[in-house]
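I would like you to sit down with the record closing this message with an eye to the fold:
=====
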Amino acid sequence: MADELPDVDDILDETGFSAAESVLTRRQAEVLALRERGFAQAAIAERLGTSRANISSVESTARDNVAKARETVAFADALAAPVRITVEAGSDLYDVPQQVYDACDAVDVKVPYAAPDLMKVVNDDAGDAVDGREIGDDLLISVTTDGTVQVRRQKDTD
């Protein structure tokens, strides 16, 4: 079955992977590239000459690194956004659009969503931090100059 795996170097070249500019090691990128194409850890381990347990560990670390990179980008985007509002836990989701519109109006940023659509964005992006209409955790909502809305749970600082 290992012979059926595609050439991982070709995949990395096609997707523009550069170990020097990535938070992933080359091995992590190789494993993710093959896993994202549906290949089993055992087949990847055979191709790469290691154990399935090692591939599992490499994949887990790679996915953690990707999640941290995404969080870092989201943090940087939130810092650069001209609109940042905190929606406190216990708030009503139905009150959020007006808070966002008021903050955007103050700095002349346009939001490309009607209230129901904006509530859906907040609900979807907040995950289980929204239960029905109730905001369960403090949320940071930022809006970029082009109207992109980003919703993040506010984290406790370490």
About this structure: The mean pLDDT is 92. The longest strand covers residues 83-87. The longest helix spans residues 52-80.
